[in-house]
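U., I forgot to send this yesterday:
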Amino acid sequence: MWLVAVCCLMAACNNDTTPKKPVINEPAAPVAEMSAPAVITYDIIREYPHDVNAFTEGLELHDGVLYESTGQYGQSDVRKVELNTGKVILSKKMEHGYFGEGLTVLNGKIYQLTYREGKGFVYDAATLKVEKTFAIASAEGWGITNNGTSLIYDDGGSVFHFIDPVTFKEHKQLKVTDEHGPVNELNEPELIHGFIYANQWKTDLILKIDTATGKVVGRTDLSNLRERAGIAPISGNGRGPDVLNGIAYDAANNKIYITGKNWPKLFEIRLDN
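Result:
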């Protein structure tokens, strides 16, 4: 009888159906021991025109095509853009109740977040036809990228959420820290050489983040791009050109493209990273 009870207990343990919690990284070291991130310099290689009416929330270059997601209620869309001219090749307008946020391209699909609607959209990358929607657990959706197997999004806090592109279940969280502690208002991430590069909202900074530890290992100050684009320092004016927001990486040619919300220009830069 005792043996039967033990066997039953073991079977119950092996058939545990409790949902697994996302794996959460632990900081590589106490904040006090973290060194300041490296200063990453850059060169401006080329300037391109950019639609000043585009309230840019997501930017990605894939197979030579620039994909862009724009925000604002009643104005949001997903579009395919010709890099050299800034001309919109194809666009899909969103319904008035949605505020478009970041986007990423994976396996022929575009994955786009919405701001406070708790929903994401999946489009066919060739036609921009909506194929399905998915729910996100966060109160807000900001930026999104992918590592080839997982979608990686942020919600305006200091955490990146890794979710499965088929089931949309979260399986990992990456807490981002620097020498001062948690780093909030992360936005518009892009995976480059195995690191996440992300804008930090209301700054002209791009942060280089270690995907294993979440530690910020480098910073780039792009305030000079604002001057080149003819844009005044950050004002908080929602009606005009404002924050840096848009990082697209051309992996085939090792090029990085940068723009901002309602900016008249898009820049190709080379980072010393």
